[in-house]
Design brief:
TM_pro_TauE-like, about 0% strand, membrane, transmembrane helix, mainly alpha
């Protein structure tokens, strides 16, 4: 019974995380962590480590799918990734020097609001409009936005995937599919960095739970990414919005239980 219960919990955790990753570049940690903590009574630090490691392959396969469909900006993604990684460290250092504040609900709240935004005001930017921005200006924008995302994520400790999607679509003017593809590309490396550091500090995880989360998240991320790349912009905006709103409400419920 315990094994079956574990499989069910990890299946639904992986499904939520995979759909969020494939559709919107959302971090798996936002979904998997609260479910492992609430239902399997797992140590929070280890739960985050498992969630981040699940995010690595899910984000990688999603990024590959978006790249295969020419919906990934690798050059500016790499530029932004370096800025994000560097200033995540800076943000973490600053956070350690100031009085602590409860910011845990930031990522969940952003997930819900971003979902509503995609439903009410869909992103209808075209690739032609994206290409109208000069390469130099795009590179500078990527650095500045990467600094902002990294610092806030390091300071608050959450919300990276959602912030990237919001900034890529609303500030940098990316077409939705390219924004998600670039976001999951960056998240592959940030999740890998986080997972390795968690396991180095906290030790080896429960390998059974880890394997289930990795497989289920990978499966659903692949399904979501394939669907997203075939969908028309209006359908994709609506589907992405619904997924984010549902996940936001569900995660708020899990956080309330914990």
């Amino acid at each position: 019974m315990n094994v079956l219960f574990t499989v069910l919990v990890t299946f639904f955790a992986g499904m939520g995380a995979g759909l969020g990753t494939g559709f919107a570049g959302m971090s798996a940690a936002a979904v998997i962590s609260p479910m492992l903590i609430t239902f399997l009574h797992m140590d929070p630090y280890m739960a985050v480590g498992i969630a981040l490691s699940s995010d690595v392959l899910a984000s990688a396969v999603s990024a590959y799918t978006y790249h295969k469909n020419k919906n990934l900006d690798i050059k500016n993604g790499l530029i932004m990734m370096v800025s994000v990684l560097l200033f995540t460290v800076v943000g973490s250092w600053v956070a350690s020097r100031v009085p602590s504040a409860t910011m845990g609900g930031f990522s969940v709240f952003m997930t819900f609001l971003l979902g509503v935004k995609f439903i009410v005001r869909p992103v209808m930017t075209t690739k032609e409009a994206m290409q109208g921005v000069s390469a130099k200006k795009r590179a500078i924008q990527s650095i500045v936005c990467g600094v902002l995302i990294g610092f806030i994520c390091g300071f608050i400790g959450a919300g990276g995937g959602m912030m990237m999607l919001l900034i890529l679509t609303s500030v940098l003017g990316y077409e939705l599919k390219t924004a998600v593809g670039t976001s999951v590309f960056i998240m592959t490396f940030t999740a890998l960095t986080g997972a390795v550091s968690h396991f180095m500090i906290g030790g080896a995880p429960n390998w059974f739970v880890w394997a289930l989360c990795v497989v289920f998240t990978l499966l659903w991320a692949r399904i979501a990414a394939v669907f997203a790349n075939k969908a028309d912009p209006k359908t994709l905006n609506r589907a992405t919005g619904i997924v984010l709103v549902v996940l936001g409400v569900v995660i708020m419920g899990f956080n309330f239980l914990t």
